[in-house]
């Protein structure tokens, strides 16, 4: 029985590795910065090693051809592109203006917010779990600080300063 207990204790010691950092804030800033740079360097190395896979994927999707058409043939000017770009720009601007004017006509002169229903002081007191004097004091001031009891119910309050208008 003692051997089993000592084996379990030994197993627990192997499970808890004191070399693991539990609170990195207590580590020196220089050491944290150096390990951060090592981490970034290894991420860059991993991404560098994945570049051939990324190149294959882009080649399969035809991105290389699109890159050549857009950026490598610099001396070639497509006349369709010269005519189509301003037309597309004008259509986008007109559709945005039309949508804004439609919404302005649709919502102008209409109150979209529903009025807030009036709540009685008794309902406020019941919802807060407070006495009627607390709810009455809340209704008379614009800014209050509630003092709570141990059951998180308002026990008293102190009036705060009125905000400037």
Explain what the structure shows.
By secondary structure, the chain is mostly helical. The protein has a domain at 129-159. Helix content is 62%, strand content 7%. The protein is built from six helices and two strands. It has helices at 2-15, 29-61, 63-72, 79-107, 121-128, 132-140, and strands at 144-148, 154-159. It has a two-stranded antiparallel sheet. The radius of gyration is 35 Å and the shape is flat. Residues 4-11 have low confidence and may be disordered.
Summarize the structure.
This protein has 165 residues and is mainly alpha-helical.
Question: Which terms would index this structure?
Answer:
165 residues, mainly alpha, two-stranded antiparallel ribbon, 6 helices, 62% helix, flat, membrane
Taking strands numbered 1, 2, ... along the chain, how are they ordered across the largest sheet?
A: 1-2
pLDDT averaged residue by residue: 78
Number of strands: 2
SSE sequence, one letter per element: HHHHHHEE
Which blocks of ≥5 consecutive residues have pLDDT under 50? 4-11
| H/I helix tally | 6
Helix content: 55-70%
Question: Which value, in Å, is the CA radius of gyration?
Answer: 35 Å
The class by helix and strand makeup works out as mainly alpha
Terminal Cα separation, in Å?
Answer: 78 Å
SSE inventory with pairings:
Elements: H1 2-15, H2 29-61, H3 63-72, H4 79-107, H5 121-128, H6 132-140, E1 144-148, E2 154-159
Antiparallel strand pairs: 1-2
Helix pairs in contact: 5-6
